[in-house]
Write a sequence for this structure.
């Protein structure tokens, strides 16, 4: 949630965002308050519990892991998380919103950059590991 960054901006003190630690947040004020505002969020990372599954950038979504359903109607009981294989699955959501046909990894200039961004995001958890706040399993 981006409440911290947004609150500081709305209070006029966005210069008080700490720089001595990683702050995972983006200020969406321009998107929320302007009639024609654009989001400041360029990337969205998709997690499933402890697994970094996918990332969306612009019209592209890249999967590195997927949830596989092994029995109809038993989604919670009979699913597994699997790696996608040798190369990430890349989809153009404007052309294929149901994510049925990967566009192919060799034909897309964004893929190497997306992989690097995803690795950079995952590395932030080594610097600032998640805290156990009692939500448990």
């Amino acid at each position: 949630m981006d409440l911290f960054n947004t609150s500081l901006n709305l209070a006029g003190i966005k210069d008080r965002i700490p720089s001595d630690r990683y702050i995972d947040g983006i200020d969406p004020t321009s998107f929320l308050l302007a009639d024609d505002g654009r989001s400041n969020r360029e990337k969205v990372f998709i997690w499933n519990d402890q697994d970094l599954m996918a990332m969306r950038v612009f019209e592209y979504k890249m999967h590195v892991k997927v949830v596989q359903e092994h029995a109809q109607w038993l989604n919670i009981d009979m699913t597994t998380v699997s790696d996608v294989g040798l190369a990430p699955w890349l989809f153009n959501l404007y052309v294929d919103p149901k994510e049925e046909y990967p566009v192919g990894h060799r034909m897309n200039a964004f893929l190497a950059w997306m992989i690097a961004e995803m690795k950079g995001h995952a590395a932030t958890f080594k610097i600032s590991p998640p805290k156990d706040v009692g939500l448990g399993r």
Q: What stands out?
A: The chain has a mean pLDDT of 82. The longest strand covers residues 51-57.
